[in-house]
């Protein structure tokens, strides 16, 4: 999947791509054709950097409803010839999820598109999962024959069918088809289900990796073998060390942390950090200076997980270092530091935005820490991150931090957050947005009545507009 190109945050397209509440509010006042064109652009060209975890589908579906938008562009995208050439689910997943929400809102055209695509599209499994939640039994039974026709009636086809049944996210269609009155369908689905269960049992009975009785060196060797294959195994290897290592093995582990091979060094550093070994902080600092990139990353991660007073004290001395260890120290203080560390955390936040921009991964922890510590003078930086980040998850964390640091949040960003794409952000807004704004009261009532809204959001809404609510 290509990296999405995100438009400037001040444009309608940029707002919609980010999933910001202001995107919906601007779209509803823009010329309808312009708003629908921007909406189609977002749905057909997924703007998320982390499409597996960021939410957009309900956000876009609600806007299609508000604009009474046609689905012609989505239909053309799904049934384009490219669908046969590019089977990556990221090409069509967002469009299918939007159709699923529209179907749940009663859009018959969306339901029919999902049925057609499940019968003939390359990403049929996703469409089938959407239908499993929304379609009736008759509609799902009608798909049994075209779906099973994808799998040839030979050993290879039966094996692929067994994998599809075993890995199905929503089992309802397969359960219906296992009881289908047509013997040819029911027999194949039942056989596939039995094969999938047997495969799962075989995997459970044949585990790979460390076993009881392994030595410390055997664990180090296993970690190195994984690294040679491109798989970082030092985290599970460190857990294995906890089971096999005794006090007499400490010198060997410390030596590995000081200068062993990359697999052993990463494993030893993680193990020593998890056990708060008295030498580990010096070993971490040495690893950052002398280690390979993979060792540096493992050392920094191990240090950042530490909770000891000694680790926090060392972080205060490292926080201004211009290297990965300095950045990790800032994050550790954001998580574990006290009021005396506010200046260091704020400096780390500003440096991260200045040096890496509003989408830097380090900002997630620093933003959380800024809110936890209540650093009021960080509000301007937080507002910048909120506006500019392309990550809806980071924006939600920033909204939470603003709620704790910025007195203007209830009358400002909290209002637009009621339309945000992330349910956790809408929940924050429902708890903080000032109800003196008529838009807020109307939106809260709509969220309370929307069956697609998350329970946590509706609970927050009821705390504001219920009989015992306290309004602000």
SSE topology string: HHHHHHHHHHHHHHHHHHHHHHHHHHHHHH
Q: Quick one: overall form?
A: flat
Structural class: mainly alpha
Q: Which oligomeric form is depicted?
A: single chain
Instruction: Describe the largest sheet.
Output: none
- Beta-strand percent range: under 5%
DSSP summary, beta strand count: 0
Rg, nearest Å: 26 Å
Q: State the helix count.
A: 30
Low-confidence stretches: none
User: Fraction of residues in helices?
Assistant: 55-70%
**Average pLDDT, all residues:** 91
User: How many angstroms separate the termini?
Assistant: 45 Å
Core attributes:
single chain, 472 residues, mainly alpha, 30 helices
Summary of the model, kept short:
The protein is mainly α. Helices cover about 70% and strands about 0% of the residues.
Task: Describe the overall structure.
This protein has 472 residues and is an all-alpha fold. It has 30 helices and no strands. The chain has helices at residues 12-18, 21-29, 32-44, 57-67, 72-78, 82-85, 89-104, 108-120, 124-134, 137-141, 144-148, 155-167, 172-178, 183-205, 216-228, 234-244, 250-259, 262-274, 280-290, 293-305, 309-318, 324-336, 342-356, 363-373, 379-388, 392-405, 413-417, 423-432, 438-449, 455-465. The protein starts with 11 loop residues before the first helix and ends in a 7-residue tail after the last helix. The mean pLDDT is 91.
């Amino acid at each position: 999947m290509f990296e999405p190109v995100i438009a400037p945050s001040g444009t309608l397209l940029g707002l919609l791509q980010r999933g910001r509440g202001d995107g919906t509010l601007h779209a509803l006042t823009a010329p309808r054709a312009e708003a629908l064109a921007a909406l189609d652009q977002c749905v057909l060209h997924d703007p998320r950097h982390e499409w597996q975890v960021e939410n957009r589908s309900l956000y876009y579906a609600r806007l299609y409803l508000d604009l009474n938008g046609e689905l012609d562009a989505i239909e053309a995208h799904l049934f384009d010839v490219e669908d046969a050439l590019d089977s990556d689910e990221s090409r069509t997943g967002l469009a299918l999820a939007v159709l699923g929400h529209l179907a749940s809102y009663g859009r018959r055209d969306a339901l029919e598109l999902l049925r057609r695509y499940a019968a003939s599209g390359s990403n049929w499994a996703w469409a089938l999962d959407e239908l499993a939640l929304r379609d009736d039994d008759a509609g799902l039974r009608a798909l049994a024959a075209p779906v099973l026709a994808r799998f040839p009636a030979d050993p290879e086809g039966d094996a692929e069918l067994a994998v599809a049944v075993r890995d199905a996210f929503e089992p309802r269609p397969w359960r219906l088809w296992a009881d289908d009155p047509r013997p040819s369908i029911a027999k194949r689905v039942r056989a596939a289900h039995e094969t999938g269960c047997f495969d799962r049992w075989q995997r459970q009975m044949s585990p790979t990796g460390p076993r009881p009785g392994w030595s410390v060196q055997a664990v180090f060797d296993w970690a190195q073998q994984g690294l040679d294959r491109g798989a970082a195994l030092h985290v599970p290897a460190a857990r294995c060390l906890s089971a096999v290592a005794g006090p007499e093995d400490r010198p060997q582990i410390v030596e590995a942390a000081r200068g062993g091979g990359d697999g052993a060094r990463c494993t030893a550093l993680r193990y020593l950090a998890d056990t708060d070994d008295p030498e580990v902080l010096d070993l971490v600092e040495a690893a950052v200076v002398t280690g390979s990139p993979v060792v540096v990353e493992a050392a920094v991660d191990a240090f950042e997980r530490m909770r000891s007073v000694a680790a926090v004290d060392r972080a205060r001395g490292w926080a201004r270092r211009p290297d990965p260890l300095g950045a990790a120290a800032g994050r550790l203080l954001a998580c574990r530091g006290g009021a005396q560390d506010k200046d260091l955390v704020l400096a780390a936040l500003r440096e991260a935005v200045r040096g890496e921009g509003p989408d830097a991964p380090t900002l997630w922890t620093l933003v959380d820490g800024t809110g936890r510590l209540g650093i009021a003078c960080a509000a301007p930086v937080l507002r910048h991150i909120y506006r500019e980040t392309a990550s809806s998850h980071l924006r939600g964390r920033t909204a939470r931090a603003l709620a704790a640091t910025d007195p203007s949040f209830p009358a400002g960003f909290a209002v637009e957050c009621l339309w945000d794409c992330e349910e956790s952000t809408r929940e924050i807004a429902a708890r903080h947005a000032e109800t003196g704004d008529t838009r807020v009261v109307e939106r809260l009532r709509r969220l309370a009545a929307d069956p697609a809204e998350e329970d946590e959001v509706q609970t927050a809404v009821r705390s504001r507009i219920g009989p015992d609510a306290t309004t602000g």
